[in-house]
Design goal:
By secondary structure, the protein is α+β, with helices and mostly antiparallel strands. The chain is built from 5 helices and 8 strands.
Length: 176
């Protein structure tokens, strides 16, 4: 399997998030405060430039808030693999029935029994504006040894890889 640090940023990003079932979507309330919701990513694939897709209920305030202010943050994490992803994006509501049908799946039916045509279903699409990831490759034991050594030496431990969207792979940094 190709290592993420040998892939384009977009391909590495998709490799990390494709199997993580839930993202935390953070948006802004009318009073300026932040609020987060766990949402299921509906994409089966993600080509460069395509939005990340989520279904939400019209009965909630999520769609209303995103119409008012589409600036959002998404966080994905895989604790088992020590992968952390942060995405900044612009959310829009897409009412295209064909797109909803393309993305609809049996798991979504639990929330939207009327299928892609369920009147309560809203499709949220998030354009990726910026993103970064941290991929800690070392075992838990190695991480502990490195952290203990850093605590003694006063130098930060170098573990894993941190890469930002506009950063070439050869300029990635050690994750902290």
């Amino acid at each position: 399997m190709t290592q993420p640090d040998k892939l384009s940023f977009h391909d590495a990003l998709w490799k990390f998030i494709k199997d993580i079932k839930f993202a935390m979507l953070t948006h802004r309330h009318a009073d300026g405060s932040l609020h987060a919701h766990p949402l299921t990513t509906q994409n089966r694939k993600l080509k460069a430039g395509e939005p990340l897709c989520f279904f939400v209920s019209k009965a909630t305030e999520v769609g209303q808030r995103l119409r008012a202010d589409g600036n959002v943050g998404l966080v994905y994490c895989d604790l088992k693999e020590d992968v952390w992803v942060s995405i900044t994006g612009r959310a829009t509501i897409n009412d295209d029935l064909a797109r909803k049908k393309e993305l609809f799946n049996p798991f979504a039916k639990a929330w939207f029994p009327g299928g892609a045509e369920d009147p309560d279903l809203e499709l949220v699409e998030i354009e990726i504006v910026d993103a970064e990831y941290w991929n800690v490759k070392e075992s838990k034991a190695t991480q502990l040894v490195k952290m203990a050594g850093a605590a003694i030496s006063g130098k930060k431990p170098e573990m894993g890889v941190h890469r930002e969207m506009d950063q070439p792979a050869e300029q990635e940094t050690a994750g902290h």
